[in-house]
Amino acid sequence: MRSFTVQVTGGALEAAWWGPGPAEAPTLVLLHEGLGCVALWRDVPERLAAATGWGVFAYSRSGYGRSTPATLPRPLTYMHHEAQVVLPEVLEAAGIRRCALVGHSDGGSIAAIYAGSAGSAAPPAPSSPAILGLVTIAAHFFVEDINIASIERIKVEYETGPLRAKLARYHDDVDGAFYGWNGAWLDPDFRRFDITGFLPGIQVPILGLQGADDPYGTDEQLHVLKANVRAPVEIALIPGAKHSPHLEARDGTLAAITGFIAAIQRDFSS
What we know:
Distance between the termini: 31 Å
Order of helices and strands: EEEHEHEHEHHHEHEHH
Protein name: Alpha/beta hydrolase
Strand order of the largest sheet: 1-2-4-3-5-6-7-8
Organism: Rhodopila globiformis (Rhodopseudomonas globiformis)
Low-confidence stretches: 120-124
Number of helices: 9
Radius of gyration: 17 Å
Domain AB hydrolase-1: 26-139
GO molecular function, one term: hydrolase activity
Strand content: 15-25%
Keywords: Hydrolase
Oligomer: single chain
Mean pLDDT: 95
CATH architecture: 3-Layer(aba) Sandwich
CATH class: Alpha Beta
Number of strands: 8
Number of domains: 1
């Protein structure tokens, strides 16, 4: 692993790279969840790099990990901003040329907005990387009651249990990381969050994954994904997994991602 810093408008973001660089192979770009960061991907980046032969790039969004703190409260459109403003800067700064996006939870929503915006807007800038595929893990395309109930419960856990101390090991500004995410989702106006309008604009193959026992969303998220995209799409519920199947059912989830990437590799290599 090579650790470094990516400079974008608004500050410095911690980043890390595994495997070959962007001039040698395509790149898997990992986009973390609402309480995640580079370190909380655990050994997933290393395993993906070894299994696919691609480079793997991960970064912590502002307010997370060792990145520049974020200004609170976050706007309710924070995922749109990350997808349409910050992510293009990050990809350019990292020198990424060809990539597949792998987004978990909030990161999956950000990835979908980015890919859907690229497909439905004006032609991308010459410096924009070629997007070869999209993997969403427990992404939210709209808000569900189960989603909000779980976010209310985790706020209680954070304020009364050991969760804050656990997260403080990974985030320089742990309260900023937690309340920036939790406060936005629990704002009554956030109930209107709905990114299904971006899905028809996605023009690359998609793999949608979700834990079979995800407390933050039902399998209706996957059904809505499949019903709204026009690109080739595969969806799968991962047995024995909750909201983080890449950690809770690691072998099966990483095998699904690796197989998806191998198919993409065959398509653009043929």
